[in-house]
Write a structure and sequence with these properties.
Elements lengths: L11 E2 L7 E4 L5 H14 L6 E4 L2 E4 L3 E6 L5 E3 L2 E3 L6 H14 L5 E7 L6 E4 L12 E7 L2 E7 L11 E5 L3 E5 L3 H4 E5 L9 E7 L6
Antiparallel strand pairs: 1-2, 2-13, 3-4, 5-8, 6-7, 8-15, 9-14, 10-13, 10-15, 11-12, 11-14
The structure holds 2-oxoglutaric acid and manganese (II) ion.
The site of 2-oxoglutaric acid has 11 residues, from strand 8, strand 14 and strand 15.
C-alpha cells in the first residue's frame, strides 16, 4: 500500500540547542502547492490590521486570516480575532500535516506576504492559550523567504547567533518542543524582487483568548 506522505522524505534536523525543529523541503509536490497557493489567494478572507508602533497606528506589513475551530479566538498585537471557519482545502492540508508531524492542531494563522517588503518581526508564539510547550507546524507556499531563529540566551556565554534557513515552496517546518520558549523567530523584509508568499502556521489552542 502506498503511504501518501512518504514523498516528503526524510526531514532535515536543525540541530538546535535546547529545542527540536525539523524541515521537509518537499512536503507538498510542486503542482499541488501552486494550486493550493492560488486557491488561498482567491478564497481566504484576509484582513490587514493597524497595530501601534512607537505610539502610532500603522498597517501591519502583511495580510492575515485566523482560521480555527469555532470559539477559539486569537489575541495578537493587542487585537482579538474571531476565527474564520475552516476552508475545506486547508482542512485537508491540516490532516496531511497532522499525519506527518504526529500531532493534532485546531487552528491556523495564514499570513499573506504580498512582496519582499511584507514581513514579520522577531517574536515567539508563546501565548498562554497555546500551553507551556507549543508545537507549531509551518507550511510555506510561493516565493522562498529567509526565516531566522535567534536563541534567547547563548548556552556557552558567547554572543547569540542567528540561524537562517530558506523556507521553500511546498515545504513544512516543524517547530517542536523548546522553539517557542528558547528562541525568537522572524521573517525579515528583503529588497529582492519576489512574488507572493503564503505561510500557514498550524497550532493547537488549549483555550480561547
Ligand atoms: O511566515 C512565516 O514563515 C512565519 C510566520 C509566523 O511566525 C507566525 O505566523 O507566527
Ligand atoms: Mn511565529
Amino acid at each position: 500500500m502506498m503511504i501518501p506522505f512518504d514523498k516528503a522524505g526524510r526531514p532535515i534536523e536543525l540541530n538546535l540547542a535546547l529545542a527540536e525543529a525539523r524541515y521537509w523541503p518537499h512536503f507538498l509536490d510542486r503542482s499541488n502547492a501552486w494550486q493550493l497557493l492560488e486557491h488561498l489567494i482567491a478564497k481566504v478572507p484576509y484582513r490587514q490590521d493597524k497595530i501601534m508602533m512607537f505610539g502610532r497606528p500603522v498597517l501591519q506589513p502583511r495580510l492575515v486570516c485566523w482560521m480555527a475551530d469555532s470559539g477559539f479566538n486569537l489575541k495578537y498585537s493587542g487585537l482579538i480575532m474571531e476565527p474564520t471557519p475552516w476552508d475545506p482545502e486547508v482542512l485537508v492540508l491540516k490532516q496531511q500535516v497532522e499525519a506527518l508531524t504526529n500531532a493534532t492542531y485546531n487552528s491556523v494563522l495564514i499570513n499573506y506576504y504580498r512582496d519582499g517588503q511584507d514581513s514579520m518581526g522577531w517574536h515567539a508564539d508563546n501565548e498562554k492559550e497555546l500551553g507551556l510547550n507549543p508545537i507549531i507546524a509551518s507550511v510555506s507556499l510561493g516565493a522562498s523567504r529567509k526565516f531566522c531563529l535567534k536563541p534567547n540566551q547563548s548556552t556557552d556565554g558567547s554572543p547569540t547567533q542567528t540561524i537562517s534557513l530558506l523556507l521553500e515552496h511546498g515545504s513544512l517546518l516543524l517547530m517542536g518542543p523548546g522553539v517557542q520558549n528558547q528562541y525568537k523567530h522572524q521573517l525579515p523584509k528583503t529588497t529582492k524582487t519576489l512574488g507572493t508568499r503564503i505561510n500557514l502556521t498550524f497550532r493547537k489552542m488549549l483555550t480561547s483568548a
